[in-house]
Amino acid sequence: MTNDNFIVTPWEVVGDVNYDVLMERFGTQKIDPSILDRVSKHTGELHFMLRRGIFYSHRDFDRILNAYEKKDEFVLYTGRGPSGNTHLGHLMPWIFTKYIQDKYDAKLLFQLTDDEKFLFNRNLTQHDTRKYAYENILDIIAVGFNPKKTEIFLDTDYIKTLYEIALDVSKRITLSTAKAVFGFNNSTNIGRIFFTSIQSVPAFLESKRQQKSIPCLIPCAIDQDPHFRVTRDVASALNYPKPALIHCKFFPSLTGSDKMSASKSNTSIFTTDSPKIAEKKIMNAITGGRKTVKKQRKNGGNPSECSIYQYYYYLFEDKDEKVIMLSEDCKDGKIICGECKQILAEKVKKFLVKHQEKREKAKDVVDQFMCKD
Ligand code: TYM
230 and 269, same structural domain? Predict the structure, then answer.
């Protein structure tokens, strides 16, 4: 029996996500071996997020590859809704986007939707979302995007540029479409209803600037797909190419069973957490281990239900052989949870120290990346 008792929207993920069912629900395509072969040829090395099916679904990614093979330019677009500090889950699609930028030498547009987070979070003021946006920008820069090929903008600082396309988009989306796609109802504030037009804009911006068709590729987790379904629906009427997408699964929380989410701070690791706090969170994580060391040694653990194993798999071990070995050692009872957590904690602490250094350095170059009206 397939479990389809879960919800994924851009603002909410509830239940155990079945990613194949979700792909069917959203009508996206699986990234198949022929696509992987082509990326392999172009890049020389497949990113582990592709090899492991973490980036697993797409819309028209093959068309982007066609464009590249014809030596046509394409633009990358991704984003962040600044509702709090950045966590490791947010970094995952950004790290992948950097890989695509580097390998395909593509320009990147990075949108920060401070307007969205103000409209969708009762407790956040406009001041709060702008403040978080500037914190998040440091993380974005720290990921290492090419400063010559990356433009970052905050909606409220760039609205004059964005508004013309947003108006064009909004005129072609009906209230009934917005209700059907996003589940809005009569008590939804009207800002939320308009918002998706703003998130559509960067998909078309480069085409408008250059006055010619520039294909756009959007790497993101699959929760953002509903916005771009709408964007794609209006594209031809506006004479723009439909944006392509490449979707990843969710980096889990430290409970192992749900998506890492900023609202669950004890089971999420933020880029601003001190190494000591991160270590504490990891040591308290839920694993797939047995109740006692004796039982673990005898019966082995269950990596498929372990948040710590997921951390290695999704982000902290890029060598496939090591991930396989870890899984085998766990199942054979050769490694116990305490050890496994401690090794991960050291890796995460090292990562945070480095990332935080880069965040500090980013403060000096923010202006080089930012676009403002
Ligand atoms: P936001 O801020 O919720 O998330 C930023 C990016 O991180 C992805 N994401 C995750 N990926 C893996 N594991 C997780 N646990 C996880 N949580 C979040 C999101 O899919 C997203 O890619 N409205 C958007 C901001 C935005 C945007 C875009 C995102 C504007 N334009 C274009 C992607 C592409 C938002 O609030 O994202």
Answer: no
Q: What is the pLDDT of residues 88-141, one digit of tens each?
A: 999 999 999 999 999 999 999 999 999 999 999 999 999 999 999 999 999 999
Residue 270: domain span: 265-361
80 in ligand 1 pocket by Cβ < 6 Å?
yes
334 C-alpha to center of ligand 1: Å? 37
Tens digits of residue pLDDT in 2-35: 578 899 999 999 988 999 999 999 999 999 999 9
Indicate which residue's Cα is closest to atom 21 of ligand 1.
Answer: 220
What CATH number is associated with residue 90?
3.40.50.620
Q: Is 31 in the pocket of ligand 1 (CB under 6 A)?
A: no
Q: Classify residue 161 as exposed, middle or buried by CB count within 10 Å of its CB (0-12, 13-18, 19+).
A: middle
Report the relative pairing of strands 7-9 and 12-14 from DSSP bridges.
antiparallel
Residues 6+ positions from 140 with CB-CB distance below 8 Å:
80, 94, 110, 152, 369
Residues 49 and 93 in one domain: yes
Please tell me whether the overall predicted TM-score, pTM, comes out greater than 0.70 for this model: yes
For residue 370, tell me if it sits in a domain: no
Spacing, Cα 299 to ligand 1 middle (Å): 39
